[in-house]
């Protein structure tokens, strides 16, 4: 058997394979559901009907996206620690670079240095939100660092990991497609190599896009509806509670909680006008011990039903809880130490937050928990009154443990010819 014969046989077999593959492709394209129907040998038509990939969220504007934006399916939080010796001028270059690339990626455009530009085509509602820590702000001058931009006070329930409770710059990267998210994360990480190192990072998830109707409250890994009491995006409540200032709306409508003050953001420094504050808590959830709690025990601990999320005093998820309602035995339907009561009962209309939460788990038998991103105009007046009460007593503490905690200043949005943080460094 000669070498020439071997090569000739292989070539013939290869040709037959190519013909077969080509024939199969042509037959497959034809008029089938994936075909163009043209039979012209061109690429199959891309069906975008109902696809989420082309959808975008604005990047530039008065406020940063990723706060009032309807919460996406996936999130990646990455905190950076500044390299030693970084000065204000270098921080500005970094922020300009991050802003330019984040702006491009969120609109489905590849940044200049993107070597995998095809991965940028489908933004799938990608947003990138910047958070500043005290050390980064101090580069512009220590006088610009607000008093509240520091670690929270210590709570008895905390078991904080120091490695998950630090950082100088936070990027909250959210979107409805995990591949798009991974690509954006890598691009922004590459932008940061010369200026900072990764302090910590954590992935989070919710229901996948299209799994449930738009606007439905998400569930956490305990199976609870999570976020029922959030202020509505675009509402006067949201403008006051999160952005810290009222709008010029005539006869504004407020939730059943009452009218929140219109000056909750008055304490924010000038460079933060149009921004807000973020407290990010990493809360470990003990699913194994939660498994042992029956449904009545779970509902008693939360103060809501597991199926509909209705308060135990009502019938529907958005019913206003009645903390004085009693059952046929004369006992209050919602325990005074249930989670909903501790987070709400007796607190004024200003004590509200906007929570953007994402679940996480690291595999069977691994870590499970909740990334609790709390946005509010004033940490002292809004977040801390709730957190102090929950730390004092809350039945849910039996199954949850805070293991990470950071505080961030969320600057206003950027203009198209500017960058995030420009008011701080150039204002």
Automatic annotation (TrEMBL):
Show the ranges annotated as biased composition (Gly residues).
Answer: 31-42
Which one of the record's GO molecular function terms can you name? heme binding
Chain ranges of the Dyp-type peroxidase C-terminal domain:
217-414
Required co-factor(s) are: heme b
> Which Pfam families does the record match to this protein?
Dyp_perox_C, Dyp_perox_N
- Regions crossing the membrane: none
- Region Disordered: which residues? 31-65
Per the record, the domain of life is Bacteria
Give a Gene Ontology cellular component term annotated to this protein. Answer: cytosol
Any idea where the Dyp-type peroxidase N-terminal domain is? 64-206
What broad taxonomic lineage does this protein's source fall under? Bacteria, Bacillati, Actinomycetota, Actinomycetes, Micrococcales
Provide the family line: Belongs to the DyP-type peroxidase family.
Please name the SUPFAM superfamilies in this protein's record. Dimeric alpha+beta barrel (SSF54909)
Alphabetical keyword list: Heme, Iron, Metal-binding, Oxidoreductase, Peroxidase, Signal
The name on file for this protein is Dyp-type peroxidase
């Amino acid at each position: 058997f000669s070498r020439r014969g071997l090569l000739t046989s292989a070539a013939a077999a290869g040709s037959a394979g190519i013909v077969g593959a080509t024939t199969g492709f042509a037959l497959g394209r034809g008029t089938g559901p994936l075909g163009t129907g043209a039979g012209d040998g061109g690429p199959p038509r891309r069906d975008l009907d109902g696809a989420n990939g082309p959808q975008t969220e604005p990047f530039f504007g008065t406020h940063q996206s990723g706060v009032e934006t309807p919460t996406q399916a996936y999130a990646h939080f990455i905190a950076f620690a500044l390299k030693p010796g970084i000065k204000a001028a270098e921080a500005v270059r970094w922020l300009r670079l991050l802003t330019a690339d984040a702006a491009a990626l969120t609109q489905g455009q590849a940044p200049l240095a993107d070597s995998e530009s095809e991965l940028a085509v489908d933004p799938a509602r990608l947003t990138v939100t910047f958070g500043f820590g005290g050390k980064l702000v101090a580069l512009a001058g220590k006088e610009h660092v607000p008093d509240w931009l520091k670690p929270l006070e210590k709570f008895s329930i905390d078991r904080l990991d120091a490695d998950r409770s630090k950082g100088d710059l936070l990027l909250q990267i959210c979107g409805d497609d995990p591949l798009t998210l991974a690509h954006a994360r890598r691009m922004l990480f590459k932008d940061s190599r010369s200026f900072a190192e990764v302090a910590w990072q954590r992935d989070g998830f919710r229901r996948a896009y299209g799994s449930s109707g738009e606007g439905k409250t998400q569930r956490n890994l305990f199976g609870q509806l999570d976020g029922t009491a959030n202020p509505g995006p675009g509402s006067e409540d949201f403008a006051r509670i999160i952005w810290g200032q009222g709008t010029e709306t005539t006869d504004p409508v407020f939730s059943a909680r009452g009218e929140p003050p219109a000056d909750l953001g008055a304490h924010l420094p000038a460079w933060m006008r149009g921004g807000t504050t973020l407290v990010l808590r990493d809360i470990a959830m003990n699913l194994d011990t939660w498994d042992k709690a029956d449904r009545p025990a779970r509902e008693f601990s939360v103060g809501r039903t597991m199926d509909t999320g209705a308060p135990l005093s009502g019938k529907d998820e958005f019913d206003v809880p009645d903390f004085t309602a009693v059952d046929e035995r004369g006992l209050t339907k919602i325990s005074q130490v249930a989670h909903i009561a501790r987070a709400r009962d007796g607190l004024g209309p200003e004590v509200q937050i906007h929570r953007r939460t994402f679940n996480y788990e690291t595999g069977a038998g691994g870590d499970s928990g909740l990334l609790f991103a709390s946005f509010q105009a004033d940490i002292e007046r809004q977040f801390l009154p709730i957190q102090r009460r929950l730390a004092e007593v809350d039945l849910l503490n039996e199954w949850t443990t805070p293991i990470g905690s950071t505080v961030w200043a969320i600057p206003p949005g950027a203009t198209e010819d500017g960058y995030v943080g420009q008011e701080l460094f150039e204002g």
